[in-house]
């Protein structure tokens, strides 16, 4: 299959119709290139706050409620586009108020399939900004979605930097990593995490990013990133594990072709078998003793 990872600039929207046109153009472009799975970035939905005015968008707390208000309409749009173009779309994640989980919003990515099927994945571990400043809550548990394209999981940004979260979705053939990072160092951390999860699970990870500036936002004001697709550096994959990587901070799609049979093959008979041998860490993963050597 062909996957598309977005390097996505957020806009100061003039109207709902402007948002519809923007998302439709992005999806249409990727569909025209033959992509079957589109991945938009973390907090890309913050641009919806501008529909409530610049002052609201600039207010960290008010922007949460503003975006949450527009998410149902954004979801309907993405569902329609997934069906119209016959592809799967991971929409840009958004702060969503879900009273069954928390009084505070969770960071939620929604996955749309042709025919109207929809599922969501919440972020598990909050960054310092999310927990200390913005007060975003950890969401519902990790899931693996069994789709027509294969088994898909989502690790939102910081979640990709935690090996045990990656192991929890080890059944996934594709791990989607929507992200937003201010500095190159942050982008590098998520890239390393996404690549490491592909190595450990012998699968493919697809990372998307917000790029550019948004002077109407305190949460995504400056963003550094690009689209990237990683696999295990093993037989059937590039020697450096990079299937595709876009130019830093250049808006647009990054495409890669993913062969599920190559994933199955490397898991069964790779040069190394990280996924199979994971359990051999048990008993050897106790805190190491400090041994004097001087």
TrEMBL record:
InterPro entries listed in its UniProt record: Aliph_Amidase/BUP, C-N_Hydrolase, C-N_Hydrolase_sf
Keyword Calcium: no
Cross-referenced Pfam families: CN_hydrolase (PF00795)
Domain CN hydrolase: start-end pairs: 1-260
Keywords on record: Hydrolase
Gene3D superfamilies given in the database record: Carbon-nitrogen hydrolase
Organism of this sequence: Thalassococcus lentus
Protein name in the entry: Carbon-nitrogen hydrolase family protein
Keyword Hydrolase among record annotations: yes
GO molecular-function terms, A-Z: hydrolase activity
């Amino acid at each position: 299959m062909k996957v598309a990872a977005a390097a996505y600039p957020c806009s100061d929207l003039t109207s709902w119709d402007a948002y519809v046109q923007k998302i439709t153009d992005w999806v249409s472009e990727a569909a025209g290139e033959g992509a079957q799975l589109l991945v938009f970035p973390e907090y890309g939905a913050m641009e919806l706050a501008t529909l409530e005015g610049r002052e609201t968008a600039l207010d960290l707390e008010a922007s949460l409620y503003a975006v949450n208000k527009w998410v149902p309409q954004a979801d309907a749009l993405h569902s329609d586009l997934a069906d119209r173009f016959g592809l799967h779309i991971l929409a840009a994640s958004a702060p969503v108020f879900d009273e069954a989980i928390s009084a505070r919003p969770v960071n939620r990515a929604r996955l749309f399939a042709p025919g109207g099927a929809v599922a969501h994945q919440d972020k598990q571990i909050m960054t310092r900004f999310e927990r200390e400043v913005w007060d975003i809550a950890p969401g519902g548990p990790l899931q693996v979605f069994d789709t027509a394209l294969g088994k898909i999981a989502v690790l939102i940004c910081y979640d990709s930097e935690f090996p045990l979260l990656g192991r929890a979705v080890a059944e996934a053939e594709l791990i989607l990593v929507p992200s937003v990072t201010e500095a190159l160092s942050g982008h590098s951390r998520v890239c390393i995490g996404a690549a490491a999860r592909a190595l450990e699970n012998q699968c493919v990870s697809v990372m998307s990013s917000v790029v550019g500036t948004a002077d109407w936002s305190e949460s995504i004001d400056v963003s550094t990133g690009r689209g990237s697709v990683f696999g295990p550096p093993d037989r059937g994959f590039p020697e450096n594990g990079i299937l595709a990587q876009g130019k830093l901070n250049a808006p647009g799609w990054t495409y890669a072709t993913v062969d599920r049979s190559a994933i199955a093959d490397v898991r069964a008979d790779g040069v190394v078998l990280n996924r199979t041998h994971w359990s051999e860490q048990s008993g050897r993963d106790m805190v190491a003793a400090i041994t004097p050597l001087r």
